[in-house]
Amino acid sequence: MSSSGFPWGANAPPFPLGNPPNLPMNPTYNTMGNGSIVDRVPADLLHLIDPFWYQFPPMNPAVNYSVGLVALIIGIAAVSGNFVVLYVFLSTRNLRTPANMLIVNLAFSDFMMMAGMFPFLVVSCFNEVWIFGQLMCELHGFIGAWFGCQQIWSLTLIAKDRYNVIVKGIGSKPLSFKKVALMLFFVDGFALAWGLVPFFGWNRYVPEGNMTVCGSDSVGTDAWSRSYIFVIWSYAYFVPLSTIIYCYFHIVKAVAAHERQMREQAQKMNVQSLRTGDDGKTSAEIRLAKVAIMTILLWFFAWTPYVVINFMGVFYRANITPVVTVWGSVFAKISTVYNPLVYGLSHPRYKAALNESMPCLSCIVGRPAECDDNKSVTTQESSDAKRMEQETAA
């Protein structure tokens, strides 16, 4: 087959299409003489394509169009949702607290990741190949690595802050703006560093399997590139996940103990409850348990497929396909949509501010009086219990 019919023009591909040298063929595909998924890749990107991908046939256009449509929906929802969170938190004085700056940082990470990635992903999917050149491919992968890592560690800081307030209570040092600034400087700088290192030779940013999205090279066979996959996912997945699980486990445990004490005290006082309007309301530990479990599961299901695919590229790359890689990438981006819901709409004062500044959204977030669980706390509770109840509502 002549190479003149492909986008690289007179530049021949590294080897005959569909038959890479010294590469075991994936038994699912038999592309000998039928072309390759790499056929449409521009000439300036060919040197970035791992020989592994040449064995796969061109993808069905319907798959690329489906991915593009899903990415478009996710992108619009994520950018608009996180913009609203940023606007409300930063424009409302009583929401500009040290703890809420962690939520602002999370929303900023999600907003920047999707604003900088989804337009290019959508256009490339509908063109069935990355069309923006090598520089934009590298920047695309860099933005995903930088703000993806920043997002994950922002979630970890939020979990740690709630752990300090609820588990340690008044024994913990109050969170100040100075302390938050230092925490965010460290975390955001840490994420930026991990995004930059591929530019200096430790791994690289390349078109992923379906050739419409760019990310780190997870199918490279050299030990140096593989070590990057091990290290970055240790610090950007396993350590944060372990920390989040630890924090929320002890939060639920502490709130359950607090609720048990409240019930015992109510029995001693011969009253049904120390809270007004407690009948018909879900107990605090159940509410918090649901939030904690939802937080962990959503985070886990969003990022785990992408992490598994990366490690499959290292250990079992014969089982990797272009379709698998692109859907793993899309799954990870879903987290940018639900984060505003979990960490924004579950915040009572945020709901009130949103209803005031954007009343057109009241049908989505509900009326503030219906959402603010803080009003159920009575004067019989100690100040420490009030703090715990506020964090439960948030």
What's the topology here?
Layout (H helix, E strand, L loop, with lengths): L60 H31 L6 H30 L5 H36 L8 H20 L8 E3 L6 E3 L6 H46 L15 H32 L6 H24 L2 H10 L4 H4 L2 H4 L11 H11 L1
Antiparallel strand pairs: 1-2
Helix pairs in contact: 1-2, 1-7, 1-8, 2-3, 2-4, 2-7, 3-4, 3-5, 5-6, 6-7
Keywords:
mainly alpha, 2 strands, Rhopdopsin 7-helix transmembrane proteins, 2 domains, 394 residues, two-stranded antiparallel sheet, Opsin_lateye, photoreceptor activity, chromophore, disordered N terminus, 11 helices, phosphoprotein
Explained architecture:
The chain is mainly alpha-helical and 394 residues long. The chain folds into two domains: 1-58, no CATH class; 72-393, Rhodopsin 7-helix transmembrane proteins (Rhopdopsin 7-helix transmembrane proteins), CATH 1.20.1070.10. It is 63% helix and 2% strand. It is built from eleven helices and two strands. It has helices spanning 61-91, 98-127, 133-168, 177-196, 223-268, 284-315, 322-345, 348-357, 362-365, 368-371, 383-393, and strands at residues 205-207, 214-216. A two-stranded antiparallel ribbon has the order 1-2. Strand 1 and strand 2 form a beta hairpin. Helix 1 (61-91) runs parallel beside helix 7, helix 5 packs antiparallel against helix 6 (284-315) and helix 6 runs antiparallel to helix 7 (322-345). The longest helix is centred in the middle third of the chain and has 46 residues, at 223-268. The radius of gyration is 25 Å and the shape is elongated.
